[in-house]
Amino acid sequence: MGTHVAFTIGFDFPLEKGFLAYIQTHGYLQLMGWVGLFIMGMSFVILSRIAHFSPIREFYIKFIYILMVSGLMIRFIAHSLLPYLTGVWYLIMGISIIISSILVLLAIIIYILFLLSIVFHISPTIGTPNRDIRYFLIMNIFGWFVYGLASVVLLSVMVNNSQIFISRSINLFFVDFFIHFTIFPICIAIGLRAIPLFLRLDKVNWNVKRFSIIYLIIIAIYFILKALNLFSDDIILINETYLLAIIKDIIIVWFILKLNILFRDYKLSNRISKNTVSSQKGKVRDFFPDYGEFGHFEWLIQSAFVWLSIGLFLDILLHVGLIQKIQIDIGVDGIRHIWFSGFTSLLIMGMAIRMIPGMTGTRKLKHPSRVIWLVGIVNLSVLCRTIYLVIPESILLSIPSIGIIALRLFGLSGILFMFGLLIFYYLMDSILKPYPYYPYGSTTTAKN
Questions:
Q1: Which end of the chain has the least Cβ crowding within 10 Å, N or C?
Q2: Which of these, 231, 254, 226, 230, lies nearest to 242 by C-alpha position?
Q3: What is the 3-state secondary structure (H, E, C) of the chain?
Q4: Residues 6+ away with beta carbon under 8 Å from 198
Q5: Are residues 365 and 357 in contact, defined by beta-carbon separation less than 8 angstroms?
Q6: What pTM does this model have?
Q7: What is the Cα–Cα distance from 118 to 190, expressed in whole angstroms?
Q8: For residues 83 and 164, is the Cβ–Cβ distance under 8 A?
Q9: Is residue 204's pLDDT more than 70?
Q10: What CA–CA distance (Å, rounded) separates 242 from 230?
Q11: What is the largest CA-CA distance in the chain?
């Protein structure tokens, strides 16, 4: 759907009456399907191990999967047809859309029960300030529930009013809410534990608990003010809202710098590598604790944080301009795409390539040298998707033909990303074969 929408805009095809419905359905499928299912699947394994907690029973995992996939498929089919229907057929598709959101909400509630069990039973050793990610998990829980419940309510209102899409401003408010309360916190929480290990970065020696509380307070106040301005007729503390947006961006920038993923200490990594004894698998890669069996997965992760940094810089610049009443003309949709397509998608791919082989028992990729194909095509796709959206229109119009070129690249971005997904599937296919299920702590291991 995203490819269709981007191609339609990029090559000046007429926008049909279902255009906004397609955009919102595409966004929902991306958040709940692409990102949501990945977060859920990885959480069941990673968080159980971090907390030294017995994993959720396989029955509940399958039940969540069935609810999520069923809900997403019904939403895709029903909302794609809705703009072209009237009368009883509109009512049937409309009710189907509501049911789809309820199915997803039920899956979210079961998943939240798992997260709550992790929060309440987390090991005391994890409760130390530099390892305590519980507040990020609490934010994650809140983000999931609010977005899932809001989807049910807003879609019910939409169908009741015989409309074909949700109010754009309200929909984007809850999309941003999910990004800041669920996507960013879980990426930070998992990143704090896994990324330093996989990329041989310095250990986290700063107060994670304090950082998470500060982040929670800032974004809570920020979204309260945004909600007041969205749902009321009066503009309330608008400059303070912009200032809080800048502060929450600076907080995330501080996290990136403390993680040191963009400016890593290669001397330290090299010193550790030299002390690592080679085994029958081969020589350990310079600066990394693996033998190259996952390809250059770190390029995906580092690219993700580069795009996150770019998005944060543009968001800060945008809000500084809003406070100073300066027309900067940076597209908010472009920043949102940088955070989602650039940061989240690349991080998903990088972490999946590094972590899933160990979870399935395959231990390595079949074609690790081809990870570089994925790095190139997905980064090119993100560049094509966002360059038209974030570059001010005045600049695009000042250079002959540059605006048309940027628009055409935007139209091709979805096709490029689809190629990236095909490469990702090609790389992952051999390691996603069914293997016996072994709970955490079991003495039995999957065959290599």
A1: C
A2: 226
A3: CHHHHHHHHHCCCCCCCCHHHHHHHHHHHHHHHHHHHHHHHHHHHHHHHHCCCCCCCHHHHHHHHHHHHHHHHHHHHHHHHHHHCCHHHHHHHHHHHHHHHHHHHHHHHHHHHHHHHHHHHCCHHHHCCCCCCHHHHHHHHHHHHHHHHHHHHHHHHHHHCCCCCCCHHHHHHHHHHHHHHHHHHHHHHHHHHHHHHHCCCCCCCCCHHHHHHHHHHHHHHHHHHHHHHHHCCCCCCHHHHHHHHHHHHHHHHHHHHHHCCCCCCHHHHHHHHHCCCCECCECCCCCCCCCCCCCCHHHHHHHHHHHHHHHHHHHHHHHHHHHCCCCCCCCHHHHHHHHHHHHHHHHHHHHHHHHHHHHHCCCCCCCHHHHHHHHHHHHHHHHHHHHHHHCCHHHHHHCCCHHHHHHHHHHHHHHHHHHHHHHHHHHHHCCCCCCCCCCCCCCCCCCC
A4: 288, 289, 290, 297, 298, 301, 354
A5: yes
A6: 0.88
A7: 14
A8: yes
A9: yes
A10: 14
A11: 72
Residue 147 region by backbone torsions, left for phi larger than 0, else alpha for psi between -120 and 50, else beta: alpha
Query: Residue holding tokens 């698998």?
Result: 281
C-alpha–C-alpha distance, residues 189 and 47, integer Å: 10
What percent of the chain has a predicted confidence (pLDDT) above 90?
A: 49
Rounded to 5 degrees, φ, ψ at 123 are -65, 140
Residue 254 and residue 262: Cα distance in Å, rounded? 12
Q: Which of 316, 349, 346 is nearest to 330 (CA)?
A: 316
Q: What is the pLDDT of residues 363-414, one digit of tens each?
A: 788 888 889 999 999 999 999 999 988 888 778 778 778 888 888 999 999 9
Dist. CA 299–CA 301, nearest whole Å = 5
Considering only CA atoms, which of 2, 1, 22 is closest in space to residue 413? 2
Asked whether residue 269 carries a pLDDT value surpassing 60, the answer given is no
Residue count (the chain): 448
Structure tokens given for 76: 């895709």
Tokens coding 154: 């807003």
Give the model's pLDDT for residue 250. Answer: 96
Q: Give per-residue pLDDT as tens, 281-323.
A: 566 776 677 667 888 888 999 999 999 999 999 999 999 999 9
Q: Give the separation between CA 438 and CA 368, rounded to whole angstroms.
A: 26
